[in-house]
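[Q] Does anyone have a clean C-alpha cell version of this?
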Amino acid sequence: MDIRELQYFVTIVQEGNISKAAKTLNISQPPLSHAIKLLEEELNTKLFIRGSRNITLTETGKVLYSKALNLIELHKQSIKEINDIEKNVRGNIAFGCISSAHMFLLEKGVLPFYLKNPQVSYELYEKNTYELIELINANLIDFALVRNPFLSTDLIVEKLQDEKLVAVYNQKQYTFNKEKISLNDLKDKPLIFYRRFYSVLESIFQKKLIVPKIVCKCDDARSAILWASKKMGITIVPYSATKYITDRNTKFIEIKDLDINSDMAIIYKKNHYLSNSAKALIQTIKDNL
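[A] Here you go.
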C-alpha cells in the first residue's frame, strides 16, 4: 500500500464511482480498477459494494477512508515542511478572512508582507467565522482572521484588538447633531443588521425595551454598509468595517450605551504545521497593529 493507491481510493469515494474518479485523476479506468483490486487483495477485504451507478463503502472501507485522509494529509504536510526548510519564506499561503476585516487584513498584513515577499502567492477564502473554522479543521487553510465569540477547543487563538461597534448612515437621510448617539436614537428607524451580531444586538435592544425596526439581516458587513449608503436604513458594524465606506455622504457614529466590543483574532489548528510564510504573515499583522 502506498500514497498513490490511497489517493486513488479516496478519489473514488469522493467522486462516487470509478468512472468519474478516473476522469478526475486523468487516468483510464482499467488501471484504476486494477489498483483498487490489488489494494483489496493486500488488505484481504472488500472496500466497496459496487452498485449500478455508484459505489458504497463497506465497514472496512469506511475505516480505511478515515485513515487514508489522515495519511494523505500527513504526507502533504511532511513534503511542505521539508520544502519549507529549504525555501524559507516562499510558496503559497492559504488563509481565510471574515468580510468585516478584509480591509484590515490587507492594510495590516498582506500589503506590507507582499512588498517584502513578492515571491509568495495567496489563496484567500472569504467566509463567516464558523465556515472558516471548518476550513481550518479540514486542513484547507493555514489560518484565519475572525471575530469572537465562537466555540472551538481545537484551535490556537491569538487575540489582536478590541473594536467598538458603530452606526453607519447616510447623512442625507439622517442627521445626528452630537458626537455620540444612544440606542434610543435608533428607535423606529429602519435597521440593517449584520447577522454576525444579530442575536447580541437583539438582546441589548430588548433590555432597553426597544423593539428594533429591522429591514434586513445580511451575512456581509460590506453589504450592510452599501445598503445604508443607499438610504435603506442604519447599520451597526465593527469600526474596522467603516473602511468600506466609499460614499462621501455615508458617515459613522459611536453608540454610547452599546457596551459590547468585537475583538478580532487569528486562529489556527493546534499541533498543525504552519509554514514559515504563514508564520511570517501572521507576525506582520501583529507587528502592524
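[Q] Thanks! Anything notable?
[A] Residues 16 and 54 are 5 Å apart (CA to CA).
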